[in-house]
Description:
- By secondary structure, this protein is mainly alpha-helical.
- It has helices at 2-6, 10-21, 26-33, 37-75.
- The protein is built from four helices and no strands.
- Helix 2 packs across helix 4 and helix 3 (26-33) crosses helix 4 (37-75).
- The relative contact order is 0.12.
Amino acid sequence: MEQVLNELPTRQREVIYLKYYNNLSSKEIAEVMEISQQGVLNTLYKAFKKLRSNIKLQVLSNVISLIYLLFYWNIFK
């Protein structure tokens, strides 16, 4: 999960960190980041959208690798 988080743009990573690691409200995050509360919500939305996409890609990649290994193992056993 850390790898996926590190792939986020800086502002998206920052808003996730403030929200879920520091337990700040949207209002508090807006003050810290000097953006509107709507900006916080938009940034969170974009971050989660990117996280979901990256996690799906990583899972797909892992499944393909597993299938490849199983196929390779069965042929050359």
